[in-house]
């Protein structure tokens, strides 16, 4: 089974606790459980990584790159970079660095384009295949479906 990673940035582990109007009341843990089960049904071995720090997220993406290189096949990433989306050039550079072997789709639970202006900018999405925003926890599944479609087309 091809590996797929779900990577979550700062404060995503507080989904279900923080700002329920934006993010709903489903906990981070059950959201991830559902996404992992969905990915496995679609034929991916799903790994989840969450960190509140920029460095560990970058280290993890670089680790995936080496893993994909050793395995000789790309490892797709579904990433919700949290607030790093809007200002982390370091995370953008990391996504650019690994892109050939670790292609990413960006996910946001909320529709960032309908919120404060600073959320309309995504540095990280520039280095992703695309962005899915506004569908709540379903966004993770939509991103997995996107990779399934790309896989069928031989694009990953
Ligand atoms: C978020 C949107 C970001 O603007 C915010 O900083 C988050 C969550 C989302 O999933 O909607 O932490 O990434």
TrEMBL record:
Keyword terms: Amino-acid biosynthesis, Aromatic amino acid biosynthesis, Lyase
Pathway the protein takes part in: Metabolic intermediate biosynthesis; chorismate biosynthesis; chorismate from D-erythrose 4-phosphate and phosphoenolpyruvate: step 3/7
Gene3D superfamilies documented for this protein: Dehydroquinase, class II (3.40.50.9100)
EC number assigned by the record: 4.2.1.10
InterPro entries recorded: DHquinase_II, DHquinase_II_sf
Subunit annotation: Homododecamer.
Family according to the record: Belongs to the type-II 3-dehydroquinase family.
Descriptive protein name: 3-dehydroquinate dehydratase
Taxonomic lineage from the root: Bacteria, Bacillati, Actinomycetota, Coriobacteriia, Eggerthellales
Recorded name of the encoding gene: aroQ
């Amino acid at each position: 089974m091809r590996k797929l990673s779900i990577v979550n940035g700062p404060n995503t582990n507080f989904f279900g606790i923080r700002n329920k109007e934006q993010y709903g009341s489903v906990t981070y843990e059950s959201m991830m459980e559902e996404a992992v089960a969905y990915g496995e049904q679609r034929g991916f071995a799903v790994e989840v990584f969450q960190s509140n720090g920029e460095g560990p997220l970058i280290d993890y993406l670089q680790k995936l790159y080496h893993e994909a290189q050793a395995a000789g096949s790309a490892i797709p990433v579904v990433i919700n970079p949290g607030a790093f989306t809007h200002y982390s050039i370091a995370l953008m550079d990391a996504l650019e660095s690994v892109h050939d072997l670790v292609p990413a789709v960006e996910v946001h639970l909320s529709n960032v384009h309908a919120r404060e202006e600073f959320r309309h900018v995504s540095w990280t999405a520039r280095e992703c295949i695309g962005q899915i925003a506004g569908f709540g926890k379903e966004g993770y599944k939509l991103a997995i479906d996107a990779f399934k479609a790309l896989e069928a087309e031989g694009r990953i």
